Amino acid sequence: MTAQVFSYESLVHAVSGAVGSVTAMTVFFPLDTARLRLQVDENRKAKSTPAILADIVKEEGLLAPYRGWFPVICSLCCSNFVYFYCFHWMKASWLKSRQSTPSTDLIVGIVAGVINVLLTTPLWVVNTRLKLQGSKFHNSDIRPTNYSGILDAFKQIVRKEGVGALWNGTFPSLLLVLNPAIQFMVYEGLKRQLRRGASRELSSLEAFIIGAVAKAVATTVTYPLQTMQSVLRFGQVNTPTEKSTLLSSLQTLQGLLVNRARKHGVSGLFKGLEAKLLQTVLTAALMFLLYEKIASSTFRVMGLSSGHYKRR
């Protein structure tokens, strides 16, 4: 078991996933900026993604769509490294060279997601704050922040809001482990269908298309929870003070969902979905393409390509 936990194969998957995700997110980062503004700033009028980006550039300058790039990339790199490593390590330990199934992919994806959330939520809380710092909001209730960097953000949040604030949004994040779990389940299932039992690499086009389809399905299903996650991470919500943390989290999440639905209708729960789909589908498609190519090239150099593909 120890050998499997610290296997080169899991490490290759983790590094390939991290590099692929960082590259893809850098390319499509402005789309994520548009999505986050629509989710957090309730008073910003919903427009097409190009229109939102044009407004941001006009109001805040040419580089505004890339504000907060560094903390996001750091968080994404750590998060995807942890997720890919845990997913492939647990899958290899469970299957022991047997063929995988959709239910196996889903269960392993959920467990890997829970581990990832508990370890990396503080990074995502900080990067959300930094990414939105200095933005011109249309909602006057949002309080400005003043962080000089990642470490200063950690210090200020702990000092002013307590250590627990670093895990703001953890409850919806735990629910949202379904997002990558569904994504990986659909991706791995489509990959098995394309291979039809053959031990071969995916083409670039195949990896791009099934990566896009998998992410589109997962994002649409879980989008309202993603919106509430962004709102909670931003730290502008007064949470209840019940003794039970779980009860408090449930009531806060329910209150946010109901309040947004009352104010803006059911469509308000999906505000920014166009920007999110455009960003996340393209990013995931490019990430999986790069991940497959980096991993397959590495395994080929290591002389593990044949056995590796039979197990996946």
TrEMBL record:
It is a multi-pass membrane protein. It is found in: Membrane. Keywords: Membrane, Repeat, Transmembrane, Transmembrane helix, Transport. The chain crosses the membrane at residues 12-31, 68-86, 106-126, 165-186. GO terms for cellular component: peroxisomal membrane. GO terms for molecular function: ADP transmembrane transporter activity; AMP transmembrane transporter activity; ATP transmembrane transporter activity; coenzyme A transmembrane transporter activity; FAD transmembrane transporter activity; FMN transmembrane transporter activity; NAD transmembrane transporter activity. The keyword Transmembrane applies. InterPro entries: MCP (IPR002067), MCP_dom_sf (IPR023395), MCP_transmembrane (IPR018108), Mito/Peroxisomal_Carrier (IPR052217). Belongs to the mitochondrial carrier (TC 2.A.29) family. This is Solute carrier family 25 member 17. It comes from Poecilia latipinna (sailfin molly).
